[in-house]
Amino acid sequence: MAKTTAKRTVKSNVKQSGNKKGLRVKFYIYLFIVVAVLGSFAVFIGNKYFQDISNHKIYVEGKVYELKGGATVKQTVIDLLKDDYPDFMLSLWSTVYGRNFSGIQKGKYYADGSKSLTDFLHSMQKGEVFMPKTPVITLVEGMTLSAFLKRVESVEDLPADAEFEKKISDPKKFLADTLTDKELEAIGGIHDSLEGLLFPATYPYFEKDTDLSMIKKALKHMASYMEKEWPKRDKTILVKDPYDALILASIIERESSIGAERNKIAAVFYNRLKRGMMLQTDPAVMYGVSPDFKGPLTRSQLRKDTPYNTYTRAGLTPTPISMPGAESILAALHPEKSDALYFVAKSHDPKDGHIFSNSLREHNKAVSQYRKKVRDYRNSLQDK
Prior knowledge:
384 residues
C-alpha cells in the first residue's frame, strides 16, 4: 500500500513537472510570437519612418543651404530636419544610411523643396553647388550717351551713386580720375564728352556695383579695346588718332546694321575725306538736331548749320555720335579697298542694305531706284 502511494506521488510530481515545462514552453513560444510580431511591427514602422525621412523634401528659408567644411552626414541630416523629426531618429537614420553619402562637399546648395533628402545628399556628394545667375546689363551698339546712361540708371537692383550726375556732367575730370595715362592715350586723350567712349557689351554686375561703376567698366573696356586694336590699324587711313577713329566708327555704326557693309561704308567716307568732299551723312545731322532724334529729317534741318551737319561742314563731326561696337571700330581701322564715293539704301527696309557707287551719275540712278521702291511700298500699304 505504501509503495502504491509512493508511485502515485511520483507520477503526480512527474505530471506536474511536465505540465510546468509545457506551460513554460508555451510561454516562450507565445513570448517569441509577441516579440516577433512587435519586432516586425517595429521594423515596419521604423522602415516607414526611415522612408519618410529619406523622401522628405528639403527646403530652407532663402532656398540656399550652406554646408560648412568638415560637417558629417549625421550633423547635416539633423541640421536639415531637426524641426521635423526627433534627433535620435535622425541619428539612427544616419547610422543606417550615412555610409551611402560619404564625401559630401562643402558649399552652397539650392534647397527649394524639389529634392528629397537622399537626392539632396547625393548632390552634396557630387559637389553640385548652387551657382546663382549673375544679373547683367546689356548696352547696345549705336546707343547714344544719353540712352546709355538712362539704360544704366533704369536697372532697379543697381544702386545709384550719390555723385553720379555730378561726375558724369564733368567728362574731363571723370576721364582723368577714371583712366590711367596709358588708357587715356588709347582713346586719344581727354575729351569734352563721353559720347562714343563707352564700349557696348553685356556687363555682369555684383553687390558692390553702382550705376557709376558700370559706366567706368564700359569706359575702361573701350580703352582696353582701342589699346589693342589701334596699333594694328591700316597705316594708310587718314584719321590721326584713336578718337577720330571712334568718331568715324560711330557714324558707320549708325549708317548700317549689316556687318558685311561696314568696311565698304568706311571706304566711302575715307575716299570722300581724301577728296575734300563733305561726308553728307544723315545720322550726323540727326544727332545735331538732338542726340536721340529719330527722324525723318526735314529740308530745313538738312540746311541748318550745326557742328554735326555734314552737309554744311567738311571733315568729321566734333565728337562721336553714338557708341560704336567692335565691328564698326574695326571697319574704321581697316576699310575696304574701294573707289566708291556714294551709297544709298536699296529699299525702305534697312535689312536690304545699300547700293554703292563710284560716280555721281551712278549714285543718282541708284537714288531714283530707291525712291521708286519707297513709293511702291507706300502705295502697297494704302491699297491694303
